[in-house]
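Work Package 3 (structural annotation) set out to generate three-dimensional models for the target panel prioritized at the project kickoff. During this period the team completed the workflow that converts sequence records into discrete structure tokens, so that structures can be stored uniformly alongside our sequence database. As a representative example, we reproduce one entry of 175 residues exactly as it appears in the project archive.
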Amino acid sequence: MKSKQLNDWLQVMASIGVVLGLMFVALELRENSKVATEQGISAMSGAYSNFLSRLDDPAARGVLIRAMEESGEFSSEESLQLASLYLELLNGAEADFVIGESRGLSSDISVTNALSTTIFLSNRHGRAFWESARVVYMPEFAALVDSGMDGRANDLATGWIRSIGKGAASEPSTE
């Protein structure tokens, strides 16, 4: 009888240990998920930060303005500089879109960022870049970017980029 009671007691303790172990695993998974989300947000803001800091460089800003005004052709170096600007912008916007979708949050902000990305692509050079690069992005994100291209957005972006060179960097005005 004592061995049966001991056996029952050990089974209860083992069950409690299993439950505690599962709770520990759940907490670790939650913590890892938080870390992954924070890393994603950091990568997203890093891509946007890279793009914005590149606009402080008059040469990069000039290349982007020339692309948006559709004035002239570019040297190989300028084409590479323009492509890297477009990549930084698109990668940041897509990361924001993915994070917004994965969190199940209202997608207003991520949709706005994806659509605002199109202001930099709504010119001959941007459209050509997008047509060759769109296959590497999520289909949902690509469809959103496709839906946002128009000439008015291009005019707003050009004015905003010009204001950065004058020391008045702020968000584009829709007035």
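The first helix runs from residue 2 to 54.
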